[in-house]
Amino acid sequence: MQVSYVSEATPGRPNEDFVAAGPGWVVLLDGATAPAGVDSGCAHDPAWLVRRLGGQIAARMAMEDGKPLPDLVAEAIKVTGEAHTGTCDLENPDSPSATVSLLRRRGGAVEWFVLADSPIVLDVGEVRVIRDDRVDRLPSYTLEAVRKARNSPGGFWVASTKPEAAYEGLTGEVPVAGLRRAAVLSDGASRLVERFGRLDWDGLLRVLDEEGPRELVRRTRVAEESETFARGKRHDDATAVLVRF
């Protein structure tokens, strides 16, 4: 595996994404920005969470012991929670949270894990997109409705304070043979496809491969600035990882 990536914060704000890579693996987390006025019950912000949790996952990936990916994520959530249980209310449903997307090569296969909406895009001769879209199918997006749906059956699942959320992630594998390249993206880097419609997934992979992750983020910033009606956040942290095989 050859891995290259860029992670760029929302202008003027701390980066709430996290990315790490090693021989044969990639870890990407995207922290959920807290809505204004919501009490998370936690002394820490999403940037703190993604660095602690992402570091715990990366350390376990680096051990290369073959443990199933959901087990690694569950362990990391548990250990991260223990690091601040004495100062924070981990029962608060608005506790800081993050997506988790992982790639790992083991022998002749590449395994993937996706929890929440940071997609993985695989080029296996055709483009295959792995994205957990449960948050897109909620019946309501009021603060109370999202609070009730978060890490609940029938709702959506994120990495926060409940280790069992790890077992709700999407998992699978593809043979290395025939896998040309892959992208691991925070939703701030998938916006050119999912929000702005300026590229399709094949085009996004082509930009990453031919021009690099920096160019994908540059194009994203141009699209954000030119949007005439901002739906949600005009800007977002953008992390783009290209993996060649």
From TrEMBL:
InterPro entries: PPM-type_phosphatase-like_dom (IPR001932). Residues 11-212 form the PPM-type phosphatase domain. This is Protein phosphatase 2C domain-containing protein. It comes from Actinomadura violacea.
